[in-house]
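User: Quick sanity check before I run a bigger batch. Here is a single chain. Can you write out its predicted 3D structure?
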Amino acid sequence: MGLQYVVAKRVFGFDKDKNVKYVAKSVGSGELDFGKLCAKVSRILGIHRKTVDLVATGLVDIMSEEIDDGKTVRLGEFGLFRPSFTGKSADTEEGVTASNIVRKRILFFPGKAFSTMLGNMSVTRMAVPDTDYTNGGSGEPDNSGIPDEGEKEDPLG
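Assistant: Done. Predicted structure follows.
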């Protein structure tokens, strides 16, 4: 299915005229949780699901330890995980301290397999139904398709 997007109206703060702009906004198509992922890997490899769970959990534990030590973790064709941060600037060199770091994060850089997949991934606009299934919210029944008592319904149109 690939990526889907909808068009969203935005007003950007940096635009001094506050002009309306339109941007593509990605739309999620679901999520695969850890348990279902382990079950799929288990079926494909033909090994017990608990074994897959233990290996994946162990991998995450070791990655956490190594990233906590400031190391980049490379998982072959999968990609690499690198610790990083964003910080506030200071007017002087002495003004830059650990307290200037405002957000720590882990950056992911996809490996060759994911980069190829992303390059080939389709992107389509999500079809949004434009049918109005309401009668305007008046609270009155919608009798627009029912002929009045004096009118005869013509079956041929």
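The chain has a mean pLDDT of 85.

User: Great, the batch can go ahead then.
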